[in-house]
Amino acid sequence: MGIIRDMQREHATQTAAQQRAGTAATQQRELIRRNHDLAVAAAQQAARNAERQRERQRLYAEARSADAASLNADVRARLSDLDALLLSTLDVDDHIDLDRFKKPLQVPPFDPGPLGRPHPEPSWDSYAPPEPRRLGKVLVGEKSHQQHTANARQAYEQARERWMEAETRRRQQLAARQRAYEQKIKKYEAKIATYNAEVDRFAAAVANADPASVVEYFAMVLGNSVYPDDFPQHFRLAYLPKQKHLLVEYHLPPVEVIPVVKDYRYDRVRDDVTAVPRDEAEIRRRYTEIIAQVSLRTVHEIVEADRGGLVQNVSFNGIVDTIDRRTGEFVRPCLVSLRTQREVFAAIRLRRVDPVACLKHLQANLSESPDALAGVTTILDFDREADQDLTGEFNVLAEIDERPNLLAMSDDEFGQTLADLFGNMGLEMGPAGREGAGSRWWVAVDPRPVFGGTIVVYATRGVPADGETARALAEEMTATGATKGILVTTAGYEPDALEVAAGRPLELIDGTALLTLLSEYSRLKARLEPPD
Fold first, then answer.
1. How, if at all, do strands 484-489 and 506-509 pair?
2. What is the rounded CA–CA span in Å between residue 281 and residue 287?
3. Which residue has the higher pLDDT, 387 or 364?
4. How far apart are CA 165 and CA 145, in angstroms?
5. How would you classify the pairing of strands 313-319 and 245-251?
6. Model confidence over 12-58: pLDDT tens digits?
């Protein structure tokens, strides 16, 4: 029995040990499984976080790339407008039908208003007492009924008298209103007749080649020509009736109308939109084409608008008011000069010509380096030729542009204009500081999340921005912890300024871009022209 008992105890001990081992193993396995599940969950969460981070980074990169694409679209649209300066006018009939300025006689009918409605006349039936019946005669009595009738008659007569007085007043007031209407119509008809007679007089004077009227007519023609907002549409005209000769001195746009940035690119490594400057040779070529297009366009509009054969010869000087970057002085060189006959010019198919080659065909003097303000010998001496005719021709200055001139503003006005502009664009502008005549700077805040931050804005006018100015702006950004800088100048940028800006978060805004921004965000049509 002892042996059996020992065997049972040993078996029980082994069974208990196995049970304990099984329980520990089970617990270990559960622990491992839980740790595995936690590890998997942590890995999945990390993957999700990494995916969200990658998605945020992707969306941010796409947004910055979209910013660059938007800027490139603006540049392409600008170049497209410049390339189409000549073609855009060929589908427009430049002739002005002066009869359309006449005003039709539109006489409104006479409106009497409430005075045209007579007052309702009193009716005796409304006042007469009812006739008493048999029982009423007994109760009321004949005398009493007669008294009521007499009282009613008196009230009726009084009401009728008041009605007649009111009607008399109404008719008098209606007659006075009719007379006032007729007098007003006579004045209106006389005014319209006088105006239309003046239109007829002007049309007759133009047809009879009156110099002042011819000049005014062609000033209207050139004034109707639609150019980009930053193009100066200033000109002088004179007409010599004996020679049927129209003299034109036209202000050309400065070279700054061409975007100095060729392309905007987003650098993912630097997280910055960088500006690739346009090659100087391309700027020279494009500017030469622009002044050629403007010259041909002006002569074309004059010839097409002249259906009466007033002009047989056109002389044209294209001048530009700008700043010489070498000296900082305002200059006015003549960049193109030509003289052509109406028949010769009308025979040219402008849709198919190269503008520069066309000017050379017309033997015009065209600047070889207009971007460097290299002037040409003028075929037309405007002041001398305008005074040589003994019939007394005179110059007429067609001042049709009333847009505010940024270069003629006071420093405070210019600074406030820019502060309002950037405020309209969403920046919170701080107080303006000064660094000299025509220069302002601000520390602004862009409140947008992710894309926002502190921005330093520096603006100057009168002289091109150089590398020293760009470096000073970069240093100010570092000092203020700004994430971006904006450099505004009305006179363009020196090459070293573009070199400094390359690779830095600097936004360069030249005169052309500034005019565009003012038009879009401030609804301000401005211009950049040297003050007189």
1. parallel
2. 10
3. 364
4. 30
5. parallel
6. 666 666 666 666 666 777 777 777 677 777 777 877 787 788 777 77
Q: What is the pLDDT of residues 272-319, one digit of tens each?
A: 888 889 999 999 999 999 999 999 999 999 999 999 999 999 999 999
User: Cα–Cα distance between 525 and 228 in angstroms, integer?
Assistant: 11
Residue 463: partners with Cβ closer than 8 Å, 6 or more residues away: 323, 328, 489, 491
- B/e letters for 466-505, b = 16+ CB within 10 Å, e = fewer, are bbebbebbbebbeeeebebbbbbbbbbbbeebbebbeebb
Residue 370 carries which side chain, given as an amino acid letter?
Answer: P
The angle at the Cα of 377, spanning 376 to 379, to the nearest 5 degrees, equals 120
Q: DSSP string of 294-341?
A: HHHHHHHHHHHH--S---SEEEEEEE--EE-TTT--EE--EEEEEEEE
Which residues, including other chains, have CB under 8 Å from residue 324's CB and lie 6 or more apart? Answer: 330, 331, 373
Burial of 37 (0-12, 13-18, 19+ CB in 10 A): exposed
CB 355 within 8 A of CB 94: no
Interior/surface letters 226-249, b for 16+ CB within 10 angstroms, e for the rest: ebebbbbbbbbbbbbeeebbbbbb
Separation of alpha carbons 348 and 279, rounded Å? 32
Which 3 state secondary structure label does DSSP give 171? helix
Residue of 288, 36, 215, 5 lying closest to 44 (CA atoms): 36
User: How many helices (H) and strands (E) in the chain?
Assistant: 14, 16
* The pair of three-digit structure tokens given for residue 318, joined into one six-digit string: 């294209």
Cα Rg of the chain, angstroms: 44
Structure tokens at 222: 């050139």
Which regions of 71-213 does DSSP assign to beta strands (E)?
Answer: none
Burial of 190 (0-12, 13-18, 19+ CB in 10 A): exposed
Cα 337 to Cα 376: distance, rounded to the nearest angstrom = 7
65 Cα distance to chain centroid: 26
Estimate the share of the chain in helix, then strand, then coil, as percent rounded to the nearest 5.
55, 15, 30
Q: For residue 288, which amino acid is it?
A: T
- Number of CB atoms found within 10 A of residue 392's CB: 8
Give the three-state DSSP class for 238: strand
